[in-house]
Amino acid sequence: MDVRTSGARAADARAPGAGLPAAADGPPEPDALAAVLGLHPDDLPDGLVVADETGRVTCFNAAAARITATRPADAVGAPLERALPLEDLDGRRWWTLTDPYGGLATRVGQPERNLLLPGGREVLVSARYVRDHPTGPVRRLVVSLRGTEARRRTERSHAELIATVAHELRSPLTSVKGFTATLLAKWERFTDDQKRLMLETVDADANRVTRLIAELLDISRIDSGRLEVRRQPVDVAAAVRRHVQALTAAGHCAERFLIRVRGPLPDLWADPDKIDQVLGNLLENAVRHGEGTVTIEVAPAPARPAADGPAVEGPAVERTAVTVSDEGPGIPEESMSRVFTRFWRGSKRGGTGLGLYIVKGIVEAHGGTITVGRARGGGAEFRFTLPVGTPAYLV
To answer: What is the pLDDT of residue 304?
Structure first.
């Protein structure tokens, strides 16, 4: 099939080599995508535009048509500058500026960058110059196109993170600055009780800033895959009791908490500080956003294969499960999928909305899983499981 005549996905276009440029003697090149993988250019998720040695388009796949709003029939056979009229952010014509066919013979392509289509639409473009030998003429120009939606989502997420951090830092730092400036200027005018109250407020706000900075560091490590887990023997039931005692010491009614431990529990090897962070966050959420009795259940979980998948066999891995539930209104069904995303705060405002995102990252760094659902009493139920095997370096 001559791809110059149509961009349609005809049945004969799916033959190996169809839709891709051929060598001068006719048959497709051995390294051509269709010849090697049997893929049609329209199967590619990114836009693909190929021009021959004369600069005329020989391939314009469906993704490229969607991104550029140009029909393949109008692009195939046309000069590249007309089929793909790109400009840089300064309004200069891109193909005239880069001159792939007449420029330096040592160039191998163009790195990905933001360019503009007619109408000012942004698109991510990268190019590869295919030559018969390193300094020979360009025999084929391969252009990859991608939309900017994913990058914009990432940029919005970063902007939201910066805005949240700025907002969360402003209040405690204003308080710290105000109280310290007042104490330094008028120390002798305050009683000891007034000084103590102001210093306790400064201490609490400093702790708030410290927690926020720790959350940001955790997010950075989770996103980059650098969250370290220092495994030690952990008594998770004792950790739960310790957190409940801290909450009751802070003024919460002891009768509001119900701890159930179903044993015997297998020995759990985990990072004790990070498990404390997970438990503290889940219990704080249950107390702040839930109602009624907060039930914490610790129990052994059914063992499952070390490697998931029906065709993969592996040794059974013992697990410990911790469930935290309350009797409040629960989480709406439409919000269940967003609970572990950044900035999710539910119906009640407060906090940074980063805690459950970090909890999920910590649990998964241990090789565990965490889920959210509706408790029997109608409230929210968080359940996480952790593998309990001894670390390999101790076996």
So the answer is: 62
